[in-house]
Write a structure and sequence with these properties.
The chain is α+β, with helices and mostly antiparallel strands. It has 2 domains: about 90 residues, no CATH class; about 200 residues, no CATH class. It is about 25% helix and about 40% strand. The strands form 4 sheets. Strands 4, 5, 6, 7, 8, 11, 14, 15 and 16 form a 9-stranded mixed β-sheet that branches. Helix 1 runs antiparallel to helix 4. The longest helix has about 30 residues. The protein is rod-shaped.
Amino acid sequence: MSGPIFRRPVYRQFIAGRFSLIGLIDLFFLICKIVLPFVVCFATHSFWVREREYTERPHVTSTGKFIISLGGVSGDHTDSSILAVQKILGTNDMTTTFKEKVEDFNKDGRANQITLNVRSCLQTADTIISAKFVYFPQYQLIDPIPLTLESFVYLSHIGSVGGNALVSEGKIVLSQNRPLRMRPLLKVPPLLNTSLVIPFKNMTTEYFVHRVVTDDESAVLSSPYPPEWLPAASTSCFDIHLVMNIVPQKVRYTPSLFEVLKFAWIQYIAIFILFGAVIEWIERKIFDNQILTTLVQDEKLRSISSFCQSTSFSSYVHAKEHPHRL
């Protein structure tokens, strides 16, 4: 039993002058095939991808830099681990110990959780009615856009009831006013500027908040609940217990030209196939019906027998079967 196993079209050529009317119409159709898909893609506002996002768990490390201010009945008590701040504060009536515990649950070299225990002891007992704590860990993104900046962790409580501890838990999140740009390394200037942040004795945080709000990129502590205040009548030591969770988060960025083209050509080809099929159907109707006269020339096929005789394979088989004819 036999049947067709392969077929190919026999082409028909329509010949006319390049600058004749039909030649210009054919050129117009060719331009439409190329340009119209691009116009449609560009009009959809998704052809050029201006912003993309990816998920990465940041690398947060300790810097040991903190400022703590306690408001008591007898006055304010401020301490810091930053040398420049200590010089501004001068004499200090409070001693602070700083302990940090880093947990890497999945053993990938990046912290999943950082626990801070800060204890500030006064020389004389006092009733603490307010507390402010600022901590500056380092925040890093590695791939595909390297980013290094100083995080802003801020705890605050002001009330009328004395206390001896402030407890909070949250997660470090990246705040972006605009997408990150592709560059070799992006390093944001430190939040702490001793020439601008004054006076430290009042523990004003307007400058820090202004930097977080206005900077293009900033990392802050986000918590759904306010810090918990543990009441106490009078105390000589005040404790701050803070748990910071580092979780994967979405990072917005501006893609490179290569990445934009990688996604753009897929849309272009998809629309090009659709427009190409419609325009080619119109061209066939015009040329097949000879709406505009052209010279028609059909493709001539070579006979199968002459083709087989001219092939090198058939010549080789013939020579093997009839060696005496060589």
